[in-house]
Amino acid sequence: MTFLSPTFLFLFLPVFLVVYTLFRREWRGLVLLAASLVFIAFQSKFYAAFYVGYLLVNYLFGRWLEKARDEDKSRKWALSISVMINVLLLVGFKLLLQYKADILAWNPGDAFGLNRWLRAFALPIGFSYTAFQIIAYLIDVANEITDSEKNLLRFANFTLMFPKMLSGPIERYRDIHTELADTPESFEQIANGLRRFIVGLGKKVLIADVVGKVVGQVFALDSPNIGPAYAWFALVGFAIQLYFDFSGYADMAIGIGQMMGFSFAENFNYPYIAKSVGEFWRRWHITLSSWFRDYIFLPIEISQRRNRRIPQQANLLLIFVLTGLWHGLTLNFVIWGCLFAMAMILESSFSGKWLKKLWTPLQHVWTLGWVLVAWVFFRSPNLLFAIKFFRSLLGLKPAVDYPFSQLIPFGLIDNSTWIALALGILLALPLGKMLNQWISQRLAGRPKLELAWLIVRDVLLMVLLVASVAMIASSGFTPGVYEQF
Amino acid sequence: MIDFDSLNEVFVMVFQDPEIRISAETTADDIDGWDSLSHVILISAIEDKYQITFTQREILRFRCVGDMLNCINQKLS
User: Fold this and answer.
1) Are the CB atoms for A282 and A289 separated by under 8 Å?
2) Per the residue annotation, which of A177, A285, A327, A364 is the catalytic one?
């Protein structure tokens, strides 16, 4: 079940919200936990049971760490064991997912009787996000940044809360622990949450999915022997698809959170307007990049500040390779991470000062250049495909001629794709935000006009909702790109 | 005991901006250029100026400039 499946949109979410709102505040934690377990059980009942065990173990780790943190040696032991178990689980799941076909091929006789289970294996829903959240929590408890959660129900909701299971945001316990204890009630917050959810739905269904259909066709080719125009269309289209897909999901998660009284962390801040790769990473998947900054990069840098043994460049390379591997244990993701690390190393050296003095449009060209090249590795199924795709982008003659039926003639990219792409490019800029601010300033102190504008805005949102639902009904939905991680 | 004026001098030097005025609530979001790379330079500059050494945990616990100042004053006293 995803946010776009009819079961979620027309049954699960409305029923949950009504029940959640009707219950007294002290019972809402139980309602939320029950809903989250049902949400996970839709993927697999086994994983719902797994997650119950997982949260119990980590609840105990948190309590243990709090007791052990006054004594340095015990603290280090407790932290190493608890974090290591979480890391091993995450890496183990990712390895199984990556190599299950090879394991099945190596063991065709099913010597251990596990092949049926292995064939059906999928990553537990949201585990990459959940494990990172838990690791951050454990480190924060060990460093006395927060106390451990004593209430098991609150800890369970922190771990399993369904809106952030699919694609994050990766929440910090210290930021939402007061809301876990008691969520504030406000009609305005529910209305704002609903608005945010509709915007996210529209971004995903009307832009990401429409552009994504063509992008998907190009990247599903056996070999990308296409002309440069198609290749550039597919690459820019993918950049738009990924942003609107992922940020649309983040909007929906934040919106549902708001309707329940939670303020989740923002995950995006118009990343494509960044003037440097460093700035891009402060605007893109913010909760993941800040996680790597706070729990890997900074501790290493701080410990090395007096006696440097690891150069800062190596530290940058480490966190970006790890960021790549978080997405999947493939060579393409490693190269993707190395590319961003290379850009960051250049920016942190003399080139950074040079970049700041450049004409602003050239700063954008620099940033988008790195990002687009990195997206080729991110989206290509393998390294060979990525290399051939670069040849297509540069208009070099394909090495092998493929039948025309495998190519996508421009005629098949219909008007709706062009409109979605154009809208995507426009809305990737903060134009809507600026327009909203401009109108609000103009109408300040004129209550009747302000009310009229609010009504117009909500009517437009209703139109957006109807259009999104109609689109799902007519052409189905595609799962979010970041759900797979 | 040191005050914000004294600490402000370190910020002005590290971020090369004479206009900076810090307060207890100032965070990295409020100062242009205060990223993870410059954060470590700032910490080292503070340690050098006041002849103190922060522990790793102390540094990781800083959420705002007020936390920093409290920690410095604790060490100096």
Assistant:
1) yes
2) A327
